[in-house]
Amino acid sequence: MPSAHITFDQTGDKIAGRIRKMRPSAVRSLFAAAVRPDIISLSGGMPDVSLLPEESIRDATRAAIEDERAVALQYGGTDGRLETRQVVCGLMRDLGVRCKPDEVMLTTGAQSALDLIAKTFIDPGDIVLAEGPTYLGALQAFSAYEPDVRCIPFDDEGMRMDLLEAELERIGKGNPRLKFCYVIPNFQNPGGVTMVPERRKRLLELSHEYGFMVVEDDPYGRLRYDGGHMIPLKALDARVVYLGTISKIFAPGLRTGWIVAPKDVLARINLAKQGTDLCGSSFDQIVVEHYFTDTPWERTLQRFLSVYRERRDAMLGALDEFFPPEARWTHPEGGLFVWVTLPDYVDTGSMLGAALDAGVTYVPGDSFYPDGVTGRNCMRINFSYETPENIVEAVRRLAKVIEERLEL
Ligand code: PMP
Question: Is the distance from the beta carbon of residue 110 to the nearest atom of ligand 1 less than 6 Å?
């Protein structure tokens, strides 16, 4: 009798089409191989959590372990703990957004919010608009639901509204397949650019004219090193779906993010979330709540800002000093990343091996486009994690690798 047991080798044809279509990242395996201690990484997007004061962590965690242990170790509501949502409302108020706790849902980082939004809104073939390049993790989250992602290029002032309008003309007004436009208006990942106020207003006007939702992802809004605060899209239009996170202002290890959205939208996302995780981590939510109420978190944030500002300046200074005139790069006023554009014939994916040999890593630009082809002559480099000295050395190494590829 044939055995009903399926071995690992035989599972290939059982894999769902949506996963089969996903490309494994060649870059990830390259990085995994690169464990040499002399390699300086400009590839990650990690905040420097060593800057967090131990006392603040201890105070915030003590509440979860001592005062509220029974709640911390128990299931919570799908939307998340009320007290933590109240804290989120306070954080949003600082940014100019008025919201109530019932318009807030806590998620397992902003990453799971991206997945939940895709799960709630995208049917296969639906159109999603995004900046091009855009956040790799958003592309990964969306791709499981098989949308047609159309990328709109940006310049120094954020997403190009003329190109967005041209794309919308092609899609047509009121097209039911057009679901949402995903934007990172502040210090975009990977671009480092910020959308200027006129374009923010125009995007919202277009969303009403053509009938699509705006999803505003804002992990970096508070990481501003120069210039003034920009009003979030959410403050200008209550229908915007806003994503926030503590990852860059506190700690990404406490997987806590949030969605601020109209109640009718949240009710649908709540249904999607029940099947995903029932509820987020009560423990993490209590720690987060106490961190933002009982510790001098704003002082800690200032420390993050001054350290990152210095690292950003070190990177921009080194790019000016070492990079060839054929290269162009963005000048971020905040966030964690610089986007570099090289001549068209340079392929940053195939250059990565040489960069690793030279002791430096970056993320090749094509990772940030859904077609995996556009952006081949570009790269994302990060300045939040290494010391200024290491950043300067890494840029110097990278410049040499690039120069070897330039056609003279
Ligand atoms: N959105 C963007 C634009 C990001 O850069 C990141 C993380 N790097 C996330 C979402 C996910 O953040 P979280 O740690 O809150 O899941």
Answer: yes
Centroid of ligand 1 to alpha carbon of 15 (angstroms): 27
**In the structure, what pLDDT confidence band is assigned to residue 114 with cuts at 50, 70 and 90?**
very high
Q: Is 257 helix (H, G, I), strand (E, B) or coil?
A: strand
Q: What are phi and psi of 40, to 5 degrees?
A: -100, 125
Does the beta carbon of 135 lie inside 6 Å of ligand 1?
yes
Map residue 310 onto helix, strand or coil. helix
Q: Which of 245, 276, 277, 288 to mutate to test the pocket of ligand 1 (most atoms within 8 A of CB)?
A: 245
d(CA 310, ligand 1 centre) in Å: 22
Cis peptide before 370 (omega within 30 of 0): no
Phi and psi at residue 319, in whole multiples of 5°? Answer: -60, -45
Distance CA(89)–CA(85), nearest Å, equals 6
Contact 99, 85 (CB under 8 A): no
- Interval 196-234: pLDDT, tens: 999 999 999 999 999 999 999 999 999 999 998 899 999
- Mode of pairing for the β-strands spanning 241-245 and 257-260: antiparallel
Give the number of residues written for the chain. Answer: 408
Instruction: Locate the ligand 1 atom nearest the alpha carbon of residue 114 and give its number.
Output: 10
Between CA 273 and CA 283, with CA 277 as vertex, the angle to 5 degrees is 115
> Could you tell me which of 152, 218, 145, 158 has the C-alpha nearest to residue 192?
158
Distance of CA 82 to the CA centre of its chain: 25
CA-based radius of gyration for the chain: 22
Q: Would you state the pLDDT for residue 372? A: 87
Q: Residue 187: name the closest of 357, 308, 285 by CA.
A: 308
Please name the residues in contact with 294: beta carbons below 8 A apart, sequence gap of 6 or more.
59, 60, 63
What are the residues whose beta carbons fall under 8 Å from the beta carbon of 357, sequence distance 6 or more? none
384 within 8 A of 46, measured Cβ to Cβ = yes
Which residue type sits at 232?
Answer: P
Does ligand 1 come within 6 angstroms of the Cβ of 257?
A: yes
Ligand 1 centre from 110 Cα, in Å?
5
Atom 8 (ligand 1): residue with closest C-alpha? 45
Backbone angles phi, psi at 268, to 5 degrees: -70, -40
Asked if 142 and 122 touch (Cβ cutoff 8 Å), the reply is yes
